[in-house]
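anyone seen this seq b4? input:
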Amino acid sequence: MVPVRLVLAARDEQYIEPFLHYVRHSEFDRRFSVTAFSREDAFVRHMESSRLYADAVLAEKSFLEAWLGSGETPQVPYIHLEEEGTAKGCGKSISKYQPLPLLLTAVLEYARGGAAAREPVDGKALVVGVYSAVGGCGKTTVAAHLVKQLAGEGRKVFYLNLETISSGILSENSSVQEGQHRTHGLARLLYDLKAAGERGEPINQPVSSYAYRHPALEGDTFGPVDNLNEMLEMESGDTARLIDFIADSGLYDVIVADADSYPNARTETVLNRADKLVWLLADEENVVRKSGLWISHMERSNPERCRLIMGKALFAVNRCMGEAGLSLPRPGMTAEIVLPNIPSWNQGAGQGAIMQSPVFQKEILKLSRSLYSWGHALGIGGASG
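predicted toks r here
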């Protein structure tokens, strides 16, 4: 995705420094490239140089007056960074002292002509469901490695854990990092989405009001819910609105959705809504047998839906002891990815150890490339960086 080239002009360096720090350490780091000035003369020289260009200017009134003093119509959209009690009259104004997520979302929408709050700039976010019909196949481990791999490639990734009880491997160090604002969390977002839907209005909060950057994943996610009823009461419509809210924010290239193996409204919605499914099997005959029975059940119950799901499924065999020798659940199916068994993970390895396996990451790289090649063929998933 091409970042918005924003010029920030404010006298107070104690305002500029936190602004720049937040952009660098939030979901906006791939959406903005910020150049900041605290002196009017340097700002004016920058804006008058024919060699330099900006997509938007966010500046205090004195900076705008110095720049616009010639009376010429500026070629760059600008916003008056307004302090309480200052006079207006410098075009579009925005309050200087408000939560930075709200301010940046408004600036992004203005710079993109109002479209940024509704849809991604360079195509749709690719929604990848990580699924297994049988529990214990390492679904969350694969999803976490996939998020980290995509983030390492420069993609903006959101990890959406929709399991009723989230897996423990991501619970370590999952608190909001020091210096970041406190977030409302998934439970609050679900409430806000439902309330906004009943009013027929959009949510006026950005994703970052509810999510945080996970240090091990290098992507954004929600903290685990405190009350399991919040997950148990989620219906298909709630899940679809949640996924669409994240995808339509325009802030992410990929959403990796991790749902329960057993059927419920959340899992069914992920199967329907995902652009691509990573369907996990384990290198065990019983897992393959059960998966085959579940596919046959889907086919009998709803042949058309089964055809659509199977058409977007990429089968991967996890915890493979060697060469995958098992036959897949249906004739003609092939395992496109074979992920190795890592014995130490079965011995209570912590998050740090699980996220640092070169052998496993090598195969995850193949999975990432396969998914993104598929996404680009359909024009899904903005091209970052």
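Residues 4-111 form a domain with the Rossmann fold fold (CATH 3.40.50.10850). The chain has 13 helices and 13 strands. kinda curious what u guys think
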